[in-house]
């Protein structure tokens, strides 16, 4: 009986700990509305030149189309974590409004 209680306690503790970690929220990176280049200070992807797009709809003709070097990232999207200094990341809200741009 004590083994069963110990198991139940461990299971309950694991469940409680998992409730403290919201699913799908970013764990790092610039705050919303930020523009940043590469960690080394370079701007190989041109993020700073695209800063004027923040607040605009993704459908605006001046927004670069998605490609291997441009990612449009919506809430809940799965993206690879490989860092590519020349890749432009355009983060949008659920309403497809640009909120953050960075390299990666």
Write the layout of secondary structure elements.
Blueprint: H1 2-18, E1 35-36, E2 70-73, E3 88-92, E4 98-103
Parallel strand pairs: 1-4, 2-3
Antiparallel strand pairs: 3-4
Number of strands: 4
Helix proportion of residues, in percent?
10-25%
- Reading off the top of the CATH hierarchy, the class is best stated as Alpha Beta
Mean pLDDT: 78
Verbal overview:
The chain has one helix and four strands, in the order αββββ. The chain is globular and about 30 Å long. The N and C termini lie far apart (53 Å). It has 104 residues and is an alpha/beta fold. 16% of the residues lie in helices and 16% in strands. It has one helix spanning 2-18; strands spanning 35-36, 70-73, 88-92, 98-103. Mean pLDDT is 78; it is low at 6-13 and 23-30. The chain has a single domain, classed as Trypsin Inhibitor V, Chain A. It has a four-stranded mixed beta sheet, with no helix packed on it.
Structure summary:
By secondary structure, the chain is of the alpha/beta class.
For the structure shown, list the relevant keywords.
four-stranded mixed beta sheet; 16% helix; globular; Trypsin Inhibitor V, Chain A; alpha/beta; 104 residues
